[in-house]
Amino acid sequence: MSAASFIAGDWGTSNLRLYLCDAQGTALDSRTGPGAAASSGRFADILQSLAAPWAASCPTLPAVLCGMVGSNIGWSEAPYVACPALPEQIVDACVAMCDGRVHIVPGLSCRNRFNAPDFLRGEETQILGALNLIESLRHDRRLLCLPGTHTKWVVLQDGAVREFLTAPTGELFALVCEHSVLLRKHDQVESEVDADAFTKGLANFNEFPQAQLLHRLFECRSRQLSGEFSLPTATAYLSGLLVASDVQGALCALTEALAARSVYLIGAPELTRRYAAALARHGYDAYAVDGAAASLAGLAQVHRRLSQQVAV
Q1: CATH number of 167-290
Q2: For residue range 284-296, what is the model confidence (pLDDT) as tens digits?
């Protein structure tokens, strides 16, 4: 087995994923722990406890952490780096903790296409990983999509993060499912998405592209009342409407002068498949990158640059 070189941690709001990595960023072992929201005042203790089995043989392992651990509810706030931002600017803005043994990756900020402030945290590390994994992303103008609770649409220019746009698609889906009369019996919602109903949501949204999303959402209830949909079908249909709206809006706002009609999707496989289906309806090719793999590759890239700085 390769020798351990550093600890990589993706410390989100709800969960911590910690990896013991070799110099190339390959995960040798892993641990899970509480998210930033449940770790207040205990970040150092949690990291030390989870890493204790690794520290027994490698007591001086450095750690690189990304995500909400660097937010205002985290261990130490890592200020946002303003766009446009080069990869090396992101790494150089890492916040050092514990006498330099721990580094926290900063988030990014921009003024988006609608002249509103926009922010991301955690996704910057996945972007760094994607740039490391896919050489073509370092050239020309490219569009990334990181679907999730707050979907991020990111414009790259020659490897720099030029701007981005946030859509709370996943959060809106959860709110409607859990708190809306549109899907009243939400406790019966199945975790498995009805693929045909999702596709129907995409198709029906695109049939009337001029319609506002607000004028389509009530269908999730009305089609149940008419007997056309069951609750699981209506839930998947809602997902189709929301993803279709998200994709159409982002393409309209961000796709001028793209190097190709393609989008790179970074995230969980099920989500990237849904967004790929929506993009295909607009004639765009989609290339998927696993979100966890991108995050780990990004943390490894940060570690390598920090190690080079120490060596110099």
Answers
A1: 3.30.420.310
A2: 999 999 999 999 9
